[in-house]
Specification:
Its main location: membrane. This protein is mainly alpha-helical. Helices cover 75% and strands 0% of the residues.
Length: 325
Amino acid sequence: LIVNNNSLCSPCAGSPASTPAYISLYAAAAAVVLLTVCGNLLVVASVCHFKQLHTPTNVLILSLAFSDLLVGLFVMPLQFTWLIESCWIFGQSVCLFYSFASFHLSIYNVSLIALDRYIALSNPFFYSSKASANMIFTTTVLIWVVSVFYNFALLYVNGNFTDFKVCDGVCLPALGPVSGIFDLTVVFILPCAIMMVLYVKIFAIARRHAIAIRANIKEIRRSDLKNNASMRSERKAAKALGILVAVFLFCLVPYYTCSIINGFVSKLLDTLIIATLTLFYLNSTFNPVIYAFFHPSFRKSMILILTCRILSKDSSTMNVLLKAN
């Protein structure tokens, strides 16, 4: 969540001049923020508008997209400005808001999506009879409430609400050693371990299904075309899972690695901490691509939204989308 010591306090080096490169940095940052907000907004609108997307898994994707949307609106602009200026320029109150708004729901949503997919594949009859959109919605609301309470309690216990001080040019509220280890375990190690174990199991189940389908095809009809299609499906599933895990870990691991190292050395470069934290937030930009844009129904629903075809009659029932298929 946040770096667990105060050794990063250092004065600002001063803002760079308004050079073309400096302006280009802000333009690039604005483009990333816009992409994050618009991408996640499209996912939110798709799930909310089209009734055929009101499935348990898509409720989790909706929660993920909404949390990433909030990151794009309130966290990333501050983070990019901090990175470009090499200095926190917004003051104490905004720093406190930034620290509180930075509770990371994405990792919990990703873990829930992994659990949802694992149950759906390993026990489809139980999943179809017990899992409902309302039940998953209740679960996600509970996750949001617990996450907000956890972040508030973490900052309060460490004195960030009662005796909050901002170092010159740095907005990194302190965590004690015990709180830091606890936070690292709760928001990174445990969810990532669960997610990776579940996705390994999902991959194994998908592979067994592909082998069974391929064997069945050989018994019924020795068709090379169908056999090749099955093998392509297996490789496609493996590739999607690989991209999913690799991108997620690519965004999260550098920051938490720096956080751990920072607990054992007297000082770590401010720029390195801020840069890895920026990469952490960029996961909110990648998530709409990984979890939604690769899905045919989401792609078509977004096209309908962007072309304003959802204004047609009964568009919420996806009749227009079905015709597009």
